[in-house]
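Hi there, hope your week has been kind to you so far. Do you reckon you could talk me through the fold, stretch by stretch? Thanks so much in advance, here it is.
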Amino acid sequence: MKLSATIITLNEEKNLERAIKSLDFVDEIIIVDSFSNDATEEIAKKYNCKFIKNKFEGYGQQKNFAASQCANDWILNIDSDEEVSLELKKTITTLLSGDEPACQLYALNRSTSFCGKWICHGGWYPDYVTRLGNKKHVRWTAPEVHENLELSVGGPCGRLEGHLNHYSFPTVKSQVDTNVKYAYRGASDLIRRKGRRPNLFELFARPVGKFFECYFLKLGFLDGLAGLIIAINATYSMFMKYTFAYWDELDD
């Protein structure tokens, strides 16, 4: 079975080449770009990827659009700051080289690097994300943040051996910047999910609970100083999400 890969981008010249090189086993690479103004397009075309510009209206929407541009039914989606490991590459190749796979959707175990350190606790690992599926049977959800690839009808979801390496946060600042962006987008989802704005108690209680969850319940303290910084940043992100939802006028 032939395999397509999709990546959505916006100004990803620092990451894109690594991601593309790790996809040397797929039959086509579709890159959907939200009008980058750096070298993203040049890098994509250097590797003969199909490069399409499309207005960004949400992560799930953009990924569904990318899937619609693929020539093959089986699609692997990765982010531009991710890399398919050699073991995962072998697993996927083996899966699609035989009979029809047992499942129509597969989750990959993502391993995330924070400031050059691979994180093993705090809820960051193991981190199974659904990224490989048959487009006839799967579709991306479309919240403001944290979109998921889901089966359109019931059925099992498989898990594959090997890691999807995630080079997400090269600096502490990069995580803080991302957290604030996601907190703002997540505030609208929070209001829609609850059907109301959060109250003052939730504004303070939820961040405290988040720190306790990340640092103690999920053993973030075992990652040393990195684990502490991650837990504090998660607390700050939760506080900002609830603050935006409690106080701010949010974009539609």
About this structure: The chain has two domains: 3-169, 172-247.
